[in-house]
Amino acid sequence: MTVPEHDVSDAIDTNDHSIARVQSLGSGSSGNAFLIEHGESSFLLDCGVGIRTIIHAMNVRHQTIADLDAVLVTHEHIDHIRTLPQVLGPNIPVIASKGTFDRTRIRDQQWLSITPSAPIQIAGASIWALTVRHDAAEPCGFLIELPGATISVLTDLGSWRDELLEPLLASDLIVLEANHDLEMLRCGPYPAHLKRRVASDVGHLSNEHCGAVLADVAKRGPRTPTVWLAHLSGTNNRPEVAKATVDAALDRIDRDLSITPLPRRTPGPVWTPSENRSGETNRNGPIARPATQLSFDGI
């Protein structure tokens, strides 16, 4: 299976400013970035891909980088901040934890400190920090609440925390790491110390663990979210392997979700809430969509 390459302009109706849209601009050790839009608002979550990719993505939407309402940074590793100095104009706020701020070149006056205890309200969005375990100073994932859509992004986490389940249950789009296949990592070319780092509690989430998490979401959740598998290793994984592992975990509980492995080096598909609403069913029939009150105690 080859992950399809998507032009940044695929599936974008630039005349419809009322719907939420999300696109991955790259997901992997070579660079990570997500462009999130609603109405006239736009956010860049991480900026580890090439600056030309980001500029083109904005231009397709008749915008420039200066039109960004905020940049969200998960942590300080280079594949998440490579182009941060080029993206940051003088008036673009950066949402990041204190630990990430301390290790990046974010100007004091542009930094919006985020903690798990309360969301940041900006440009019509509520943005929550989700605590994750990873070998960085103070890494986090994000949950973004927009009118009519809720998106969770967890791209680098070595182990699962049960407190993360609530945000995923509230999400219409889940972006979750499926970094490696355990057997491919064990038998692969990485030196022993790097294998231990990847598989550690502060490394990266495996396909198997990702599948178990998503099976729990599908079993407990009132929604049928779209799922994007993120941060696939180019050495210890394959898109078809990641998808098959997650699908097998869902098959064991008789559930279906839309699962898409994201391209590592190129833009991915464009998601809108209509994807979910057009076919919210599982194998036992339609799924209701009750309102979810978010609290995130202990995140």
Brief sketch in words of this structure:
The chain has 299 residues and is an alpha/beta fold. It has 10 helices and 16 strands. It is 24% helix and 24% strand.
What can you see in these coordinates?
The protein is built from 10 helices and 16 strands. The protein is globular and about 50 Å long. By secondary structure, the chain is an alpha/beta fold. Helix 8 (207-220) packs parallel to helix 9. It starts with 19 loop residues before the first strand and ends in a 13-residue tail after the last strand. The chain has a 7-stranded mixed β-sheet with strand order 6-5-4-3-2-1-14. The protein has a single domain (20-277), classed as Ribonuclease Z/Hydroxyacylglutathione hydrolase-like (Metallo-beta-lactamase, Chain A, 4-Layer Sandwich).
- Strand tally, please? 16
Task: Report strand %.
Answer: 15-25%
The CATH superfamily turns out to be: Ribonuclease Z/Hydroxyacylglutathione hydrolase-like
| Shape annotation | globular
**What average pLDDT do the residues reach?**
89
Largest sheet: 7 strands, mixed
Spatial arrangement of strands, main beta sheet: 6-5-4-3-2-1-14
CATH level-3 fold name: Metallo-beta-lactamase, Chain A
| Secondary-structure element pattern, one letter each | EEEHEHHEHEEEEEHEHHHEHEEHEE
Uncertain parts:
279-293, 295-299
Helix content: 10-25%
Indicate how many domains the architecture comprises: 1
- Would you state the CATH class? Alpha Beta
Number of helices: 10
Distance between the termini: 36 Å
CATH architecture: 4-Layer Sandwich
